[in-house]
Amino acid sequence: MIAGLMTSYFGTISWATLYLLSEWAIRLAMLVVVPFRRSPEAAKGWLLFFFFLPWPALLVYFLIGRPGYPKWRQERFARLPVVFKAATDRIKEVTAKEQPDLPANLSQAAVLIQNLGRFPSLGGNGADLLSDYDGTIGRIVEDIDRARSHVHLLFYIFADDETGHAVVAALTRAVGRGVTCRVLIDALGSRAWSANVVEALKAGGVSVRLVLPVGLLRRKSARADLRNHRKIAVIDGEVGYVGSQNIVNSDFNPRVTNQELVVRVTGPAVLELQAVFVADWFLETEEVLDSPALFPEPRPGGRIVAQVLPSGPDYPEAGVERLVEALVHGARRRVVITTPYFIPNEALLHALQTAVLRGVEVHLVLSRPVDQVLVNLAQRSYYAELLDAGIEIHLYRDKLLHAKHLSIDHGVSLIGSSNIDMRSFILNSEVSLVLFDRDLNARLREEQERYFAASDRLVRSEWAKRRLSKKIVENIARLMSPLL
């Protein structure tokens, strides 16, 4: 009996020792693996995770640890320049006369955008800023009802609600007139509604695909954390929409009501939005959309110079964060950044702090109502050092300010789907429209002034008075920010 107890005791010790050794083996191995092709901030977050919870961290790492798409998708993306040569040649042909003459301080930004996302800056565009939520959906429906050739929609969320029903009805009417309608919906972003929406769209004759579907038994399943977060509408290759708003009721989240900003653009820049859509369509279906009707001769829309920047894991060198950092470094007078989620990398944080030291007025417009608690806690951990640097923080009071845009001085505006956080910078497929125009910038500044008036301005002395427990929780969340 004693011998049996001793065997059991030493066996227990042996298993405990093996588990302890396995934890240290994981820690040491990941100390080598994690830093490869990762920013110091992201590596730090993962290594802390591995230090405290080695086995759970290893499981999560295998699921979402590498910010890259599956091999099959990478191979499709590599084929894009060949399969879309006819389409890209067509874009070059019909937009050759639209090349703008930008001043030196803006031409460098345009060159950067082209090198990152492959699209040139184009003149002759018109743009309207749309901030009325239901009014924006109404404009999209009106343009769909005027469509003659085709309608292309790509949205992260397409809901089975009043807003979604209005768009589905418009698409169904368009199909009835002989218009070709194609819709891409992110599989995870729309998971609560996708079955009903897809069924309704197919019943109306619309070609629809779920983007990056996830499933353990799927042959070509995508990772749950790599999402297509873009919001694009293109009608007849002549009218385009891009911005922060999804096809869903503004109060779909019972805790908050969304405030958005969308730009409706006409002119040659619409063809660049079209190219982003047809590339995503090919990545999901392998169907090549290169008909000349998709890339018509641009009608003069105005005098705005505009440029589209797609970004995401498909573009290893094309993070929108590079553009944001460069624009902040190039600012001479004023920077205003509006975003619902603000978790900057070190480079952007330093760029903002340095801008103030150079005499630039820097404003952050964030949302007081929140829908992502952990992200908001991490975001709040940056407020003290931002305020110490002289950056003004405005917390929008009444709604979730989901708009995503920035203005630089008096001539550069960026409006799109990208937040200022690691997810948008590294994991999500995003799209941004950059507009080089003083009048458009002035209109965006008017919108920003309305935000200021509806916001509470953070005061450093008041912010410092919050409880120590809150500071601790915020800083713990900050350690996790590279994983958010």
From TrEMBL:
Pfam families: PLDc_2. InterPro entries: Cardiolipin_synthase, PLD-like_dom, PLipase_D/transphosphatidylase. Its EC number is 2.7.8.-. SMART domains: PLDc. It is an enzyme of class 2 (transferase). It is found in: Cell membrane; Secreted. GO terms for biological process: cardiolipin biosynthetic process. GO terms for cellular component: extracellular region; plasma membrane. Residues 224-251, 397-424 form the PLD phosphodiesterase domain. Keywords: Cell membrane, Membrane, Repeat, Secreted, Transferase, Transmembrane, Transmembrane helix. The keyword Transmembrane applies. The chain crosses the membrane at residues 12-34, 46-64. Its main location: membrane. GO terms for molecular function: cardiolipin synthase activity. It comes from the Bacteria. Could be a virulence factor. This is Cardiolipin synthase. It comes from Microvirga subterranea.
